[in-house]
Amino acid sequence: MRTQIVIIGGGPSGLLLGQLLHRNGIDAVVLERQTRDYVLGRIRAGILETGMCNLLREAGVGARMEREGFVHDGTVVSFGDTRFGINFRELTGETVMVYGQTEVTRDLYDAREASGCKTIFRAGNVIIHGADTDKPYVTFDVEGVGQRLDCDFIAGCDGFHGVSRKTIPESIRTEYEKVYPFGWLGILSETPPVHDELIYAGSERGFALCSMRNANLSRYYVQCSAHDKPEDWSDDAFWEELKRRIPQQEADTLVTGPSIEKSIAPLRSFVTEPMRWGRLFLCGDAAHIVPPTGAKGLNTAASDVYYLYHGLVQFYHDKDSHGLDQYSQKALARVWKAERFSWWFTSLMHNFPDRTAFDRKMQEAEIEFLRTNETAQKVMAQNYVGLAY
Ligand code: RFL
Ligand code: PHB
């Protein structure tokens, strides 16, 4: 078998890249280790930057997002007894969209199927060959039968645990990592959101986030121990803990109900450099991870896709490899800024186990500065709505 681009990973990065390439007449095959239902069962991101919304529209998959997504003009920050809003629209002229990663991925799979593009599910033992030559290819198994796909380029969109990054020799790769000493326990429940905007809440007992998917589907998180398991937390224990961490007004009005999903995400900052090796290009979580505070993971995957898609279109349409040659540098320049913002917001809002009284005072001073200083709010708002591509 032969195609122009092999995309490893059928998560949002791989699917979005595939759809944008298809609309520009470039063939790609997506290899996904899991099934479609499995990928759609993962509850992850909820907030889309303007740039990502535009890219989804360009890919022809913006219609349902337009109908069902919720535009948010701002967010609420609370810390102890302090509570204030950050108005993105007033501060930057831009907004964000509440539309879940599950829905984005579903729209992309539907579009991919409608356009007849090839996706191979349950692709096991994917191995990349000859990435540093002009004739790369990928081998894999489907139901025990070995297969080979020849191509011009490989897009490694296979997430943090995929094979693509590890294919780049260690002598070429540099990895930067920070692991945070806590996780986020998240639940999804069929209850009305407690507030019409998200609430990022820092408290003596740790961080909490009130988010949502739609008018009757709420997503809440509490900071938990890095060693906790979802089974350690009953629904009642979760709701009680959440109420202790959010502002009193919301604690009093919160509607609780059974969880329909409960999971724990570890918190990590991670970047690998470079994001290209020969004809292999890394995209999204395969190359970098951010802690979820600030909602940058999926959005940063989208900016990688933007640079790679433009580079590939330039290569095939104009026979110009400039965009591909610049890919790693351009993507990383934006990635590091998203890393900085996510690290800053995580450090500001969480209760670190080794935090001293001085550290706490620093958090309080920074919160007070953010509350009262319009320039500080503007910097936060610009980062939250997303930096320009
Ligand atoms: P994914 O989504 O991990 O998809 C990778 C796909 O590759 C497949 N795969 C393989 N396929 C073939 N062969 C192999 N060897 C393979 N190995 C892996 C996997 O099965 C999978 O389908 O990576 P991608 O596409 O780069 O997308 C990245 C995003 O999923 C991620 O950045 C976000 O979910 C992060 N994130 C958030 N991002 C935001 O922008 N806004 C948010 O509000 C936000 N909230 C979150 C989040 C992540 C969270 N968790 C669970 C880590 C909230 C949470 C709780
Ligand atoms: C979510 O709704 O899942 C969500 C929203 C904002 C974040 C992280 C996660 O910063």
Walk me through the structure:
A hairpin with a 2-residue loop joins strand 10 (137-142) and strand 11 (145-150). 46% of the residues are buried. The chain has 13 helices and 20 strands. The protein starts with a strand and ends with a helix. The protein has helices spanning 12-23, 36-40, 50-58, 63-68, 88-92, 101-114, 164-167, 235-245, 248-253, 297-318, 322-349, 357-372, 374-385, and strands at residues 5-8, 28-31, 47-48, 70-72, 74-79, 82-87, 96-98, 119-120, 124-129, 137-142, 145-150, 153-156, 174-189, 199-202, 208-214, 217-224, 259-273, 276-277, 280-282, 288-289. By secondary structure, the protein is an alpha+beta fold. It is globular, with a radius of gyration of 21 Å. It has two domains: 5-71 and 97-177 and 268-345, 3-Layer(bba) Sandwich (FAD/NAD(P)-binding domain); 180-267 and 351-385, D-Amino Acid Oxidase, subunit A, domain 2 (D-Amino Acid Oxidase, Chain A, domain 2, 2-Layer Sandwich). The strands form four sheets. Strands 6-5-14-15-16-13-17-20 form an eight-stranded mixed sheet. It has a six-stranded mixed sheet with strand order 8-2-1-12-19-18, covered by helices on one side. A three-stranded antiparallel sheet has the order 3-7-4. P-hydroxybenzoic acid binds at residues 45-47, 198, 209, 211, 219, 292-295. Residues 45-47, 198, 209, 211, 219, 292-295 line the site of P-hydroxybenzoic acid.
